[in-house]
């Protein structure tokens, strides 16, 4: 007969910090892909559309998530994109074959519209330049268009398009996944390093205040990882501020314990990239440290089979519309723990993506908007996970799965919000049958008591939310409580939890 | 005193096949060069011009040849060509310095006109993209322009130019002779491999139904042959369907026996390219086989000295206007044997070129059209050489020449046309003085008899045809005949022959 | 107590020649940089401006210098320059962010205006193409625009811009300082070699009469010198006629004897480049010799600190406005000796630059024009240093300085002008305290006497000229004289001298 409880121990100390958390680790991503833009954030015919065509119901959920930064316009799409197609009078914008996703792009949304939407959503924009089919010239012109005040050809062009003030985008991706053989205009590490270096140089001459993201590997599974990082950073080090990481997590084999352990992959990936950055730092005798932008991460596999059957050359077809299960949400919670644990080096991260396309927010064209299961851990971590990431001591029982050994049942991250004097413990119980009891020594937080314990749990790992029915949603009836200097965390079987404490 | 006869033996068996013959091995080539286009296929002022300006007298001869595919628009010319110059209203088309041949190109014929001409000629088009001065972007735009039905910028541009239906060009050359130091924007093998791979990738995203030809060496004499093939195919293998071969044959030293043996060069070249393709196939553990497109071949040397004196910057000057001799025609016959012998791997070939420029068809501006000597072997092989290439056993006396050893006097190829139940023996006698008697065992073709024996012979190896006088032309009075299961072939000294047999 | 005199010996013989002097070693440079163009040669609002806006007071001084060739439009600026921006109706020309110098370029002067100015100044133009952000296509179009008579798109475009006759620019730089990490679109040696070779090939197809300058190192201090020269010339050898050298000389440490010896650096640099050229010549078994174009040289360091504080994005700000001292002029004299000593291989050289920007000629906007100290040695050498450079035997006392050993106090170059039957001895005395007496055996110039001895001397090494006051200027009261076959040169302490002799 199975034990009903397993036990773990933690120590949380205010002085054992990982880092101040950069809020941009709660970023997201809108690519011109499927229904992310058209039918997602933008649907002029929708009853909820504002005067610019943006769905206000979608905007409300984005604002609820407090997304600090959104990557745009791609993704793979950017590698064959001409930014000029998406600016100026809408009736003059060309309709293009979009080669990355093999759809029709009519360019009714472009740089300026997205800047406007981001403004409404209260978020910053992480722009990307095309280093697939283009290079220095297109990049310097776009940057002049978006960031130069006026008095020059491209800045005046922007003004003539109705945007008197520069958008002042501060963060720019030097292309997207240039190591990927699927990428239009893909590059070898040497080719990318040279092109990205020269383009970055010209961009920082146009606007030295920007920050640049050098393309890292498209996933840790790439055969060129991590040599790609070493070779490319050797070129781009002088001008790069960040290196990107992308990874998607799958459960094709329907092996939940193994799936829930995949955040260990993310952890290992991050550590390897940090090591590679610092190796190049040493090699270059540099005083500058490159930080990490984990600017594509999520669960992605549900829609793949359907997408492979999709007819090409449709406008905004339903591509990559993963319907997320409860177990996906539990893993997403663990992935967020992992980002927080590395918040000393991971300064940006983007859940890919935001609406409809492998996204926490789903819409029906002309219809409803709703929250997928993964919305919830993203929401709570983004809203309450601000301040200082602490470095807890954790002792947990462990298990082995197909791909992983010594997987702790307890996965956790801890944040101290000095401003609110609030301690927040995010915790996942990976055990599929037993409740996890955690005795957490919070000696340095004298007098703190549990003010809320939010639990995301479900008897069915495959439960999903739909437009009609919310089967997966959190409750705040968690039973954790304090007893003197100890927090007694009660984490139901296979659950994600947030326990907030204050004096 | 010389013997009057020499003897050879052959066995032809229905079951010993080389391959089904791809009709496209009888392709040709029209480049924007000299008077191939202007004054060749197109001459609006000519009395024979149709409403589009195409010479109908030329068209008739092209149709007579049953040319299945014509390469266009280059050749060297394509490496500095902007396809946009050749579309849209003719009065708006720019006049350019054509750098490959140093002429003036006024762009009155372009992609659409050529598609129209090809349609009238009943031939397909083998298009080429510019990988000299351009890359992915120009290629994907052109392909969208020619092959996408409509609803996008470039497909709608084509429709606005009066071509509602897409041309649906199926075969595309990834640049031309990019290994040649004379090529504008030439490439190293590594550079070409990378660019061709990335361009091919984008093109197959636009239209996955197309077939692509990866550039092979400009000739087997190039110092980079065959390493060029190995290096470039290592890059392009995934997207390439064919590799190109180009070779021109000369008789500068006026050594006819040596000249007539030059088809052995072609044979050796083809074998080496096959080996190289299959080496890369093994190296890549690929299941795909790359076939060969011998898309430039002919005799070319008569006009070289004159061309070197040509004044630059003329419109359609008489460049590369080789006047072909009888011996040239005999070699062309052997070159066609060689292509047929390799028809299991050579799936396309283009006699370079079709009209005026090293061509079987010549014209006078405003005047006549006529057939050069080489027209005849090309005509008969193209028209009657359809079906299955057989693999005959041949025993022939041999000779040595300056560059070759063991040259068989008898050079032959055999085709069985199942549809017509017709056996066709193409045969060359390389002996300059003696008749060649061939005893050919045709045991598997019971009851077949000679229905026609066409002979191309002439006492003067240097005899040529002109507008005024046809000195070289075939007759069908050959004396070959069957006797039970044996074909007694009688091949006059230095002659090319076609012997057709039916029940 | 210091000796008042030191003694040196020379022998000058008509038959011991270095070379016929190419007058283009007295070239200069106008870059779109600071006030070189706007406020320098061009200032339509100035009272001295002619109908085209060119300052005639500036033109007068340029003509006085007899500058044979002027490099244009850059310099670093050319590496992100679109030549099309600077042609056509002035009101349609775009205003650009100029990235090399971070200024605003409104393109009111461009190729045609400069050609017109050069014509007025009686000088040729050494054009440069952009190999930073552009390549073959922009180069061939520009060359067609400037040099093709008409009847093609770009030549007719020039004619439509009001320039019926081609400019026929004969000398073209294949980019500028492409080895420099500061260069927009900088290149590795391999990248540059390939791009320059392919671009040169296309350019010589457009106009075979042009001469091309392959980019050498930005200075002999570059870590890639001289491997850059070896690698790039290995590519460009076939089409290059010259290789460029750039070097600026500084006196940051205020060590005059060391500073005055810096012409030895130039000498060593030239020798190393000659060796590298000839190594590649041998490697390529070539019969062609590459000559040298020392197309940027001067003293430059006075303005650096101020320039680093300059606000970006100004129109024609006062950048690189070195105010030259007397000692700078003395070194400039020695640099000119060095060029003359190598006139067998140095066929072009450009004092960088001509007006306002590290220049011999200074202006006030709306105000005066005046001669800097360095104007004088440049003027006399340019005007009188034409003919045949002789190779004198020199015996001089020497000194050691911080960076140099065995520095001869006497630095000299000798020119024989056959046409005028005039012998000109240019001579520098590097000694800061003592007069230098030179006994010069001129046995082959029987009956020659001193007709002028010009001296540039000053008690204050730091004396400068300003708009208001000319503190440094030459006088012709030098005391040199002949005695039979001997010229007794009297060179005052720390002076530059020109001694002219005729029969």
Automatic annotation (TrEMBL), chains A, B, C:
<dbReference type="GO" id="GO:0000272">
    <property type="term" value="P:polysaccharide catabolic process"/>
</dbReference>
<dbReference type="InterPro" id="IPR017853">
    <property type="entry name" value="GH"/>
</dbReference>
<dbReference type="InterPro" id="IPR013780">
    <property type="entry name" value="Glyco_hydro_b"/>
</dbReference>
<keyword id="KW-0326">Glycosidase</keyword>
<dbReference type="InterPro" id="IPR055235">
    <property type="entry name" value="ASD1_cat"/>
</dbReference>
<comment type="similarity">
    <text>Belongs to the glycosyl hydrolase 51 family.</text>
</comment>
<dbReference type="Pfam" id="PF22848">
    <property type="entry name" value="ASD1_dom"/>
</dbReference>
<protein>
    <recommendedName>
        <fullName>non-reducing end alpha-L-arabinofuranosidase</fullName>
        <ecNumber>3.2.1.55</ecNumber>
    </recommendedName>
</protein>
<keyword id="KW-0119">Carbohydrate metabolism</keyword>
<dbReference type="InterPro" id="IPR010720">
    <property type="entry name" value="Alpha-L-AF_C"/>
</dbReference>
<feature type="domain" description="Alpha-L-arabinofuranosidase C-terminal">
    <location>
        <begin position="295"/>
        <end position="495"/>
    </location>
</feature>
<dbReference type="Pfam" id="PF06964">
    <property type="entry name" value="Alpha-L-AF_C"/>
</dbReference>
<comment type="pathway">
    <text>Glycan metabolism.</text>
</comment>
<keyword id="KW-0378">Hydrolase</keyword>
<dbReference type="GO" id="GO:0046556">
    <property type="term" value="F:alpha-L-arabinofuranosidase activity"/>
</dbReference>
<comment type="subunit">
    <text>Homohexamer; trimer of dimers.</text>
</comment>
<dbReference type="GO" id="GO:0046373">
    <property type="term" value="P:L-arabinose metabolic process"/>
</dbReference>
